[in-house]
Amino acid sequence: MFMVILVPVAVLDLLVGLRIARVKITRQLPNNLSLGSWIKVNLEIRHRFIRPAFIQVFDHYPLDTKTNLLPLTVKLTPGNISKIYYRLQPVKRGDINFGKIQYRHLSLLGLWHVNKFSGQPTSTRVYPNFGEIKKYILLGLDDRTSQLGIRRQQRRG
Predict the structure, then answer these.
(1) Taking 70 as the threshold, does the pLDDT of residue 4 lie above it?
(2) Which of 29, 95, 121, 137 shows a CA-CA span of 20 to 30 A to 129?
């Protein structure tokens, strides 16, 4: 008897959870990334929830990167745009591709975790870290070659 009531309620909760207002997440990151440098990836979350809700955000970042802070749990309040970020460090040069952004929320009765995707796949390029190279150029210009381990030797003639 209990199952006769529970199953239709659970199915109805799932259907309502799938139809809850969609969340739109956009990713903002620099066009070019430096190898080995930490950058901030900004995520902007727009929604139409009529009551406060919590979602978990998973960004499908490239495998050739390190990251922290993911997944992020965000409280969405009605009428507000949420802005969050995480840090990312590229460890390989070349093209890198981000997938869509995945988010998960509870259904209305809390019986289901509903997974959905938002945003567009993004690609960018990773270049050598020219900031590090610039240090060594300045050392040479300042005649501080001894800091690089180069010693001057006097020669005959």
Answers:
(1) yes
(2) 121
Distance from C-alpha of 18 to C-alpha of 105, rounded to nearest angstrom:
10
Q: Measure Cα distances from 139 to 11, 135, 153 in Å.
A: 68, 6, 19
Residue with more model confidence, 129 or 36: 36
Residue whose token pair is 């209990």:
2
| Both tokens assigned to 124 | 């960018």
- Domain spans, the chain: 2-148
Say which residue the tokens 């070659």 belong to.
145
- Per the DSSP assignment, residues forming a β-bridge with 122 are 98
Question: Nearest-CA neighbor of 32 among 128, 99, 100?
Answer: 128
CATH number of 2-148: 2.60.40.10
Report the phi/psi class of residue 143: left, alpha or beta, with left for phi > 0 and alpha for psi in -120 to 50.
left
